[in-house]
């Protein structure tokens, strides 16, 4: 999406490999930190560390090698900005998000922010800088992750309680708060397609199609809200698995080559929101808690 008329597939492959290394390091550090918690959960007790198939020392060595290699690949095969984003995301995931999981249910929202960074890395690798259009990808990933994970958190709430994690689903006996948050973030996806058109990232037809797709995604979220149950949460989770690849495929099919001119114009048009708008944005975000 950040490329010009032609996509440099070799550079894309290197960027993907470097991002893979960063992700491997972050996930490994997460499992080293949570080995005691993972041993208490059915979903994770058979991972290599809780079962003793891999020692913490070997896991840390693996994380060090993959993390260093991933950042180095991004630095030498992409650019310093992409490498910096990769290194920062390792630190944010393993150093902030992971410890926060046993402290506050706000970890879910921070985790969504972590998941929104890799698309920024891809744009930075392609364009050499971050432009407003990159925010379309980050927003899509951020808002998508919340209904995706909240459905999973409701389905696995017993497991999360056994592991000592703080999740919204554990302080929501009826499921209505969890479902309302999922539905709200599905609604936030509706204008993302129009933003892609306004920022010169996609052709005009994409806005309506993306809004329709978000509306369809919101239907199981609404059903979950009306009658919270494991079956409704499972349907929402499955819908989330379909939504993201469909959104991304549509975005690629509607791609407008990045000439940097549209991004420059949108930067000139962007203004800091007024006091009432800032208040609305803050209330919308805090409403998720």
TrEMBL record:
Major subcellular site: membrane
Q: What topology does it adopt in the membrane?
A: Multi-pass membrane protein
Please give the biological process terms from Gene Ontology that the record holds: heme A biosynthetic process
Q: Which UniProt keywords apply?
A: Heme biosynthesis, Membrane, Transferase, Transmembrane, Transmembrane helix
CDD domains documented for this protein? PT_UbiA_Cox10
User: Which GO cellular component terms are attached?
Assistant: membrane; mitochondrion
This entry's Gene Ontology molecular function terms read:
protoheme IX farnesyltransferase activity
> What residue intervals traverse the membrane?
12-33, 54-74, 80-97, 109-130, 136-156, 177-199, 205-224, 236-256
Q: Sorted alphabetically, which InterPro entries does this protein's record hold?
A: Protohaem_IX_farnesylTrfase (IPR006369), UbiA_prenyltransferase (IPR000537), UbiA_sf (IPR044878)
Q: Where in the cell is it found?
A: Membrane
Q: Which PANTHER family match?
A: PROTOHEME IX FARNESYLTRANSFERASE, MITOCHONDRIAL
Q: Know the name of this protein? A: Heme O synthase
Record organism: Elliptochloris bilobata
Species lineage, top-down?
Answer: Eukaryota, Viridiplantae, Chlorophyta, core chlorophytes, Trebouxiophyceae
